[in-house]
């Protein structure tokens, strides 16, 4: 548990209630991240700070384990269970107002703050509670732990999504400290195994008929001691920083599809592996093309004469143009298939191009064209052609 969490209202930062579902939290974060993203608000320091706050809130509330720790700690502090009136100043084990006998109780020990041992590393409250109530008593929250997964979004043009593209993504999230490379120790030094708990991070103690585990006081529950902590991350091994990563979007990605980038998420605590990054892709509509699975679709305007007499029309594809043959007597609305000119597939093949012909009716004709059309209409009647023969019971 990070002590700074208790000084922040992550639910308020995201604009959701404390009972919000994971889906509601995700939607709120996506909306705010889009509005506050530094690329959308260049030079706006206030928007950038809000973006960082929203990102931090999402990193905690979107992780069920972190959210549970955060909610429990807020509930305890709000109710006076610890600090903020929960223990009188100086009260502790064996002190007036203290809950247990033997040993001194110190809020700094709960959070892992203060001098000595861990050199200011975070950790402790979640583990103290875990020890008291026998919930995962041997793992301290500040011990090495895989980083949380991170989610972000990007919007692509239709043709970029169909053909694949490389895009830069700028994001703010916890990442490994660039100074100590995540170790928490000053460059040139290394953490050492805590001799008191032998690296376990917890010690067991009996109080009369009760036995419980608690974070090791020497290492603050981390299992290791940093004699000379990194000045940039204060021994935590992680920092909030804005970074730009290059993402290769594969060909054929669909609107709403999520792409997983292993190891590009939140940094792991104390050198543990990072989480993953999930990129949700939004695809813009195209003026010409549509999509049906792996097939491209388009509507081809043609004249009546072209349908009757037949023609070859040049139509666009994703990588140039291709000639499409319209057979004589083609019906309006017929779909013609051009194989292999659709959306690329993962196996190297491609879908088809589906061309639907649609008659374009002229709004105005010159006198010669009008007269010719009338003569044609008369000839059509003479030939016996009736476009509504058999239609509606006729």
From TrEMBL:
Alphabetical list of Gene3D superfamilies matching this protein: DnaJ domain, Heat shock protein DnaJ, cysteine-rich domain, Urease metallochaperone UreE, N-terminal domain
Needed co-factor(s): Zn(2+)
CXXCXGXG motif repeats (start-end): 177-184, 194-201, 216-223, 230-237
InterPro entries: DnaJ, DnaJ_C, DnaJ_domain, DnaJ_domain_CS, HSP40/DnaJ_pept-bd, HSP_DnaJ_Cys-rich_dom, HSP_DnaJ_Cys-rich_dom_sf, J_dom_sf
Keywords: Chaperone, Cytoplasm, DNA replication, Metal-binding, Repeat, Stress response, Zinc, Zinc-finger
Zinc finger map (CR-type): 164-242
Free-text function comment from the UniProt entry: Participates actively in the response to hyperosmotic and heat shock by preventing the aggregation of stress-denatured proteins and by disaggregating proteins, also in an autonomous, DnaK-independent fashion. Unfolded proteins bind initially to DnaJ; upon interaction with the DnaJ-bound protein, DnaK hydrolyzes its bound ATP, resulting in the formation of a stable complex. GrpE releases ADP from DnaK; ATP binding to DnaK triggers the release of the substrate protein, thus completing the reaction cycle.
Name the record gives this protein: Chaperone protein DnaJ
Taxonomic lineage of the native organism: Bacteria, Bacillati, Actinomycetota, Actinomycetes, Mycobacteriales
């Amino acid at each position: 548990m990070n002590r700074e969490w208790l000084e922040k209202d992550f639910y308020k930062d995201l604009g959701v209630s404390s009972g919000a579902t994971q889906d509601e939290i995700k939607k709120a974060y996506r909306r705010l991240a889009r509005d506050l993203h530094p690329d959308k608000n260049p030079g706006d320091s206030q928007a950038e700070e809000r973006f960082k706050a929203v990102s931090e809130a999402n990193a905690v509330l979107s992780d069920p384990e972190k959210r549970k720790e955060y909610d429990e700690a807020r509930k305890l502090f709000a109710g006076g269970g610890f600090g903020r009136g929960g223990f009188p100043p100086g009260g502790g084990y064996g002190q007036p107002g203290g809950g247990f006998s033997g040993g001194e109780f110190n809020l700094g020990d709960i959070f892992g703050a203060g001098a000595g041992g861990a050199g200011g590393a975070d950790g402790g409250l979640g583990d103290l509670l875990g020890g008291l109530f026998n919930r995962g008593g041997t793992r301290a929250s500040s011990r090495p732990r895989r980083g949380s997964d991170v989610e972000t979004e990007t919007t692509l043009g239709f043709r970029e999504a169909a053909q694949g593209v490389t895009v830069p993504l700028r994001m703010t999230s916890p990442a490994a400290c660039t100074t100590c490379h995540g170790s928490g120790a000053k460059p040139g030094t290394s953490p050492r195994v805590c001799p008191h708990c032998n690296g376990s991070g917890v010690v067991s103690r009996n109080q009369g008929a009760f036995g419980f585990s608690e974070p090791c006081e020497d290492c603050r529950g981390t299992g290791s001691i940093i004699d000379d902590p990194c000045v940039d991350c204060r021994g935590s091994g992680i920092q909030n920083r804005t970074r730009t990563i290059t993402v290769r979007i594969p060909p054929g990605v669909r609107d709403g599809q999520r792409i997983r980038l292993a190891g590009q998420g939140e940094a792991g605590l104390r050198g543990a592996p990072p989480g993953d990054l999930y990129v949700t892709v939004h695809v813009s509509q195209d003026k010409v093309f549509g999509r049906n699975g792996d097939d491209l679709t388009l509507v081809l305007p043609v004249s009546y004469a072209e349908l009757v007499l037949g023609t070859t029309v040049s139509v666009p594809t994703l990588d140039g143009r291709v000639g499409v043959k319209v057979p004589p007597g083609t019906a309006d609305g017929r779909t013609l298939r051009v194989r292999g000119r659709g959306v690329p597939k993962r196996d190297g093949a491609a879908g088809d191009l589906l061309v639907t012909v649609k008659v374009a009716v002229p709004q105005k004709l010159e006198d010669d064209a009008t007269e010719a059309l009338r003569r044609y209409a008369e000839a059509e009647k003479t030939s016996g052609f009736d476009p509504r023969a058999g239609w509606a019971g006729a």
